[in-house]
Automatic annotation (TrEMBL):
Pfam families: DUF433. It comes from Kribbella flavida (strain DSM 17836 / JCM 10339 / NBRC 14399). This is DUF433 domain-containing protein. InterPro entries: DUF433, Homeodomain-like_sf, WH-like_DNA-bd_sf. SUPFAM superfamilies: Homeodomain-like.
Amino acid sequence: MAYRPHLAAALSGASIRQLAYWRNPTRSGGAILVPEVSERPPLYSFRDVIALRTTVYLRRRISLQRVRRALENLYDLGEVEHLSHYRLIAQGSSVVLVASDAPAVDLVEQPGQQVTVVMADVLQPFTTADEIRVPGLLQPRRALRVDPEVRSGHPVISGTRVPFELVAGLLRDGVPADRIAEYYPSVGATAAADALDFANYVDRYGRTPAA
């Protein structure tokens, strides 16, 4: 299962226009992220969404030009794994690579130099540079979960394999929340409401313009 652009945008905090811009190289540097599932049509993996969240998180304080420079220097250092493999954080006006088994390394101001950093977690909720609130990746709503081992990371009702949009679709078709259990016995009214709320968020996010 793969993430279509609107869902990848909603879970990462990137706008649809940013997704399109970031998957293409420019004169100033290579692509930020090319979808690994499919380029045409664009389909994103769970790893892609984590990488996109990292980019959005960095963009709160760092220019896109510096983010591109950090990625170029990362690859120059011999790092060739998928971007989600790396923990990148903003440190002042620079980007720093943090590893569990090695000192943190600057990627922009003084590439390769070891630095001391304050940790951050891009999986937790955060606010973008455009003041858009991005939900936690693994729990986008109280009753929803994202687990790469369950439906390849597609958001589902917690404790089930039921995709959120199936429940939201029933509510939109007029089925009362307290009757959703007739279709999905493990889904209560509160979880159904969360599914609809998240579906509305995804729909709205697809129409959010890029900065």
